Amino acid sequence: xxxxxxxxxxxxxxxxxxxxxxxxxxxTPNPWIYWADFLFHISLGWIVFISILSMPLFSLWQxxxxxxxxxxxxxxxxxxxxxAHLKKGTFKLFRLVWxxxxxxxxxxxxxTYDGVHSDHHKRDVYGTAEDGEYVPFATMKPIVMIGYVMLxxxxxxxxIIRFLLLTPLSYLIPPLRKLVxxxxxxxxxxxxxxxxxxxxxxxxxxxxxxxxxxxFVTAAVACIAVGVLTFNALVLWYVIAMFIFLVNSLxxxxxHAYRNSGDKPMEFHEQYLDSINVPGNFLTGLWAPVGLRxxxxxxxxxxxPYHNLGEAQRRLANxxxxxxxxxxxIRTGMWDALQRIWGEASTASRTVGAPTAVATPVxxxxxxxxxxRQRNVG
Length: 378
Fold this sequence. Notes:
Number of strands: 0
Number of helices: 18
Helix content: 40-55%
Strand content: under 5%
Radius of gyration: 21 Å
Shape: globular
Order of helices and strands: HHHHHHHHHHHHHHHHHH
Distance between the termini: 27 Å
């Protein structure tokens, strides 16, 4: 990774080399942690899901089970983010197992994120029109964010249609095959994103994953049709998937400042300053699992495995000779992050057409306020 020091608009030099020296020994992922974490949560999700199938739909005892299953599946599913970052050719068995017992049943096989997410971290792509994971929400009307969150209620249906109907049809209709790849094969937030033909990194057998998802959803529908599974199974699966997408959409809105209009690429330190850290507490780890509460630190050093991000956060917050810019990305919680981006979007929508100052990648909070947030780290 090419990192170079430069002056931020605030006139404070971001200590990139110093930061790298503090965390350079944390770059190696521990397979035992990955396996234990993932297998525990995916097992918990399936055990609870199977248990609540025998209960009356949305009964008093079923509701807490739904919450537990959703959180367990959510954490297990978020490992798709780690798969997108793990060194090419490594963790092959983990990738296979993840797809078989998590990615395919949730209809989010790893190829849907592979390549797309690595582009999101490229200096010449991040925050531009080519970045499928970036929409300049802070410069748009707040209603756009509401629309993005509301889309979560339809996404499970979209994925059912994508793998149950569009997959087999695309085998028979070549133009549709191309369209499905470009427009319906990527986990992104930009609805205008068009996936490039070579936007794949690790999942060279993506067609097998796609066919596996087709077989899974076809088998599930067939089992419901012949009475092997009750219709409640589909309802509960849909509700769990819907709430996973809902929580993740709110987490996504809390992950960046989304201020870049897309007309220019951003340096690595600018990507960091446009991203958000929410160290928080145990509850933070529920809505931003597998290290995603340290999203800004992740953008600074994307090779850091999720289980070392908390330690990296502590070292950088306490060990940098000047940590003011580093701490400027910290939010106290999801509500804090959402309030800020909503306020900026509201201000931007009221001042459309009026002369405005050029936005900088540095947070608008005062640096002294940023320093006081250090007590929230750790």
